[in-house]
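Self-study notes.
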Amino acid sequence: MSNLLVTGGAGFIGANFVHYWMKTYPQDNVVVLDALTYAGNQASLDPVADNPNFTFCHGDICDTPLVETLLKEHRIDTLVHFAAESHVDRSITGPDAFIETNIIGTHSLLKAAKKIWLEEGLNKESHRFHHVSTDEVYGTLEPNDPAFSEATPYAPNSPYSASKAASDHLVRAYHHTYGLKVTTSNCSNNYGPYHFPEKLIPLVITNILHDKPLPIYGDGQQIRDWLYVEDHARGIDLVIKKGELGECYNIGGINEWANIDIVKLICELVDKAFASNPELSDRFPHAGRAKDGHSAELITYVTDRSGHDRRYAIDPSKSRRELGYQPVESFSSGIEKTIQWYLQSESWWATLVHPSKN
């Protein structure tokens, strides 16, 4: 039995990880620490809220004494760190929050873990600090460049990716300087249930359902490697259980798509869903173009954002070779599941602030 502290567990990837872990390891105790900022939604944890092995704490990772208390009171042996500001557009207009949460917040967790695990000796030999990072720390790729590997030099291009790069370095430093038992994973773009509707895929789905424009930056040819969120959770599980201390592991979907092609595919699939299920027209009365089978008419090209990276792609060879990692979900099955979840879960996303841009 393990006792986990999951930071940012009410966010998109964090909540999906909690669901995965409690389903896979029902004997374990899971504590979620989340500040419930705009992208944190406690309702995402409703399916596990009544589980006696689950505890939710509303708090900030920058509150080091609080983190120390949670580590001690719940005898935490595994800390999985998701909590982060992650939206690139917001980092361009307001970088301070990204420095505070992603850098100072990560350092707060490391200080607390060092004190409780190393200095006070709780779970000194059996602890693990797993840090969840992003492929964006590697910068951008040209069309014919090989995918990012763990040996790719860091070259972050936005305040968001720069703050994540800094947090990665802090985690590494606490391992090499103090002996904290850490691992890091860098993932490609995730998609799936509980994704906040400012990000591309949920934004497109929910905008179609409201007959709103589908904003496409620049020419829409930015390429991303898409990973179903439960496959990401499965990869983190493998890193925690099998990963070598101090090492980084890339977790990718081996699934590159241009943004415009993703949007066109979603339009096609949502239109098909409306054509095959007349009830959807009653449930979403404003989805006029979807009813008519013409959602793609909502596509609107807008000015590209500053410093927009052209291509990301992850090479997960090391994770496959050393951990046995392999995505289970195909993109065709994963995107179908995601669209169906949003069609069935309006009660979750309808109450969220609906942004106008991805």
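Second protein, same conventions, sequence then structure:
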Amino acid sequence: MTFSFDPATELGKMRLLVSDTDSTRQILQDEDLQAFVAIAGHYWPGAAMALDSIATNEVLTQKVLTIMGTSTDGAKVAKELRSRAKQLREDFKMFGPVTELGFATAEMPDGVFSREEMLLKQYKRGF
């Protein structure tokens, strides 16, 4: 398993979104991130899937523990991670790549009467 961080690549961008950029405290391997990209189709929702996966691992491993006066709450950490994943999904919907091509029409009057007709139609449409 490998760990690489180059912000110019999709995996590097995913690592930035997931905050997994420190090679000494790595959370996910490159192969994990590549699998999330393959499933999601883009690195942005792939990062959200990665955060959901990390959240699930937090709940399964940490739970709520108190040992010698120190406590951990995996459920609280998981809630924050899932909240971040939800925000990433919303950001992707708003700012992500355009997948559909738009269609536009233009009215081009070729005389005085057609220009008046065009202006009348625009007025009726509220332009």
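Instructor comment on the second fold: Strands lie at 64-67, 70-73.
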